[in-house]
Amino acid sequence: MKLSALIIDDEPAAREGLAADISDIPYMEVRGQAANAFEAFQSIHALAPAVIFLDINMPGMSGLDFLRLLKIDSQVILTTAYREYALESYELAVLDYLLKPISPERLRVATDKLLKWAKSIRQPHEAGEQTGQYIFVKCNGRIERFAFDDIQYVEGANNYVFIHTKAGRYMSYMTLKGIELQLPARGFIKVHKSYIISKQHIQSLDRNTVRINEVNIPLSKTFRAEVKKDLKAS
């Protein structure tokens, strides 16, 4: 498991140095870098990183002000040369607070915390796979339990998905491929590059669409033959 990181710092040398140290950690990968808040907003939603290394002292908008505006599921590790922001930063529920210059040893302490957090999120998923009845998915900062029988279809959009159930629609920062690996193949099938559907909730099927809960979901030419073959065998 590789945990992706985004580095936000207005100093190129600081970004590159931190990126090099992160790359030396086996379970980490640097997915991107940003020099200011504007670049960061774009990168966060495009990359959906597991962790953001955020500098506090940046021109235009400080890291703390930027953090207050964020509504994401990524963990945040603050980086700064100043101790006085520590209390305020922990009130914002950051994972860790690193003082520059950051030693590789101190960085590893912080990323080990991240790894522990990531494993704690994955454990419920593994329990769901073992029971074959449900999965847990992080949605809007909460862990939600989804029974397979309740999931009608999953819609993918860039680096996040919408899980459609009888109770409503839930958004999670993960890829469609990521959730596909957690759904049992006997009950779910991909019908389009952006859609996975529950077989038991299919109302009707024609050449170009699958109807679920009065919603027409596109059936692409790429998946058409496999879908029809799978449903006949079910």
Report on the architecture of this protein.
- The protein has helices spanning 12-23, 37-47, 63-69, 86-91, 104-131, 176-180, 221-233; strands at residues 3-8, 28-34, 51-55, 75-80, 96-99, 134-139, 142-147, 151-157, 160-165, 169-172, 188-192, 195-198, 202-205, 209-212, 215-218.
- The model is unreliable at 123-132 (pLDDT under 50).
- The longest helix has 28 residues, at 104-131.
- The protein is of the alpha/beta class and 234 residues long.
- The protein is elongated and about 65 Å long.
- The strands form four sheets. A five-stranded parallel sheet has the order 2-1-3-4-5, with helices on both faces. A five-stranded antiparallel sheet has the order 10-9-8-12-11. A three-stranded antiparallel sheet has the order 13-14-15, with no helix packed on it.
- The protein has two domains: 3-123, 3-Layer(aba) Sandwich (Rossmann fold); 133-233, LytTr DNA-binding domain (OB fold (Dihydrolipoamide Acetyltransferase, E2P), Beta Barrel).
- The chain contains seven helices and 15 strands.
